[in-house]
Design goal:
With 351 residues, the chain is mostly helical. The protein has a domain at 12-228. The protein contains 16 helices and no strands. The longest helix is centred in the middle third of the chain and has 33 residues, at 178-210. Residues 1-215 form the Amino acid permease/ SLC12A domain.
Amino acid sequence: MGYWNSSVTLPLSLFITIFLVIIVAINLAGVRGYGEAEFLFAIVKVIAIIGFILLGIVINIGGTPTSGYIGGKYWYDPGAFNNGFKGLCTVFVTAAFAFAGTELVGLASAETSNPRKSLPTAIKQVFWRITIFYIVSLTLVGLLVPYTEPRLLGATSVADASASPFVIAIESAGTTVLPSIMNGVILVSVISVGNSSVFGSSRTLAALAEQGQAAPVSSIGLLAYLANYQAYGRVFDWLLAAGVVGSWVGLICNVVILAAQLWVAISPLSTDGDERMTVTQNFFVQCLALPVVLVFWLGHKLWYRTSFVRVEDMDIDTGRRDFGRLGIIKAQEEEERQSWPKWKRLYRVIC
């Protein structure tokens, strides 16, 4: 909010309360309310990202009157990867945090009337969404905004630290209205993220609480008010570091990522002159998730004195839907597919 009027010092708790009320109201409306809200949020975000991609291409090739051809200039000066490979490793935690959320596809499948039909389509589309909305847009940001831009988070100047690289990219072209629109879209995205997080976490925590594996107090979302704390950025780093290991599970490069993360934790960037406490804090910010997961796992084992469940004893039938008519359903689906035109069959293969 400070992007529009940095001179007004309204308490952050005011905006947190407004956003929290909106998110709680949406989730109180049930699955239908969540779905309708996310549908509207998605329309805004998709239109904004597609518009940014088109505008970014125009800006990059010199289509605006205030900027010439940019191309890959910033990938050479000052460079594409700050601090080389180790600099890339330092953002693994943030990248994993940003990538998290795709598991909501599986969680939402329990709320659909026909998950067998709708879930494969949704899962296939995740790849294309990540490719278009993440990779393409971030590539354009890298082409339009150098890492030495002082308005970026973590730069030497914090006057415009709240500005997004998307906003900076548009602003650098000399436009006056579009940066404000993009900043508004970012606020909508923040509400959408909070809405999805409450939707997902409330169901997950409710299921864990029923099984005695989570305390009801863990569902309280008032940690957002820590934004009023002067060192809220550091608090966010700690919370972010505590919840990203699950995002790496299943990835082929999991071991490589963890090894690289341990490397930058033991030997972080620019440690010369840092106090010993700062170095220690940086280590745990990079590797906090591992001890947190181990403590919770061992604590549950010791407290409830549970034994390891063998594969043959795992319960995979409780809560499972009855698929006694599975053969008939498959035959009906195959008959429907045979009636599709060729373009639709090809589309269904990739989407």
